[in-house]
Amino acid sequence: MKKHNIMIPKPRSHFAKVECDSCKNIKVLYTFSTKPIVCPSCNAELLVNTGGQAQILGNILETLD
Ligand SMILES: [Zn+2]
User: Fold this and answer.
1) Nearest to 47 by CA among 16, 23, 7
2) What average pLDDT does range 43-50 have in this prediction?
3) What is the pLDDT of residue 63?
4) Which domains can be identified in the chain, with CATH numbers?
5) CA–CA distance, 52 with 65 (Å, rounded to integer)
6) Radius of gyration of the chain (CA)
7) Backbone phi, then psi, for 42, in 5-degree steps?
8) What global pTM score does this model have?
9) H helices within the chain, ranges in order?
10) Rounded to the nearest whole angstrom, what is the distance from the C-alpha of residue 21 to the centroid of ligand 1?
11) How far apart are CA 35 and CA 44, in angstroms?
12) Residue 29 CB neighbour total at 10 angstroms
């Protein structure tokens, strides 16, 4: 009997707690967002999408699954 290796996919974080650079507001955002996300408090960009890849512009405090 062959033992099967169960492949557990490496968990990727889909949400991140990001602090706005300008006003220090903390927002949880979806890191695979295809749309830009702006800070609800000061409208600074927290996430932009460059060539299909999301780029977080604020400070990532924590990543959440
Ligand atoms: Zn802000």
Assistant:
1) 16
2) 95
3) 92
4) 15-64 (2.20.25.100)
5) 21
6) 16
7) -125, 0
8) 0.75
9) none
10) 7
11) 14
12) 19
Whole-number Å distance between alpha carbons of 18 and 63: 9
The DSSP letter of residue 35 is S
- Rounded mean pLDDT, 10-38: 91
Protein residues with C-beta less than 5 angstroms from the ion ligand 1: 20, 22-23, 25, 39, 41-42, 44
Calculate the dihedral angle through the C-alpha atoms of 33, 39, 40, 41, rounding to the nearest 10 degrees. 170
CA of 36 to the centre of ligand 1 (A): 14
Whole-number Å distance, alpha carbon 19 to ligand 1 midpoint, is 8
Cβ–Cβ < 8 Å for 27, 36: no
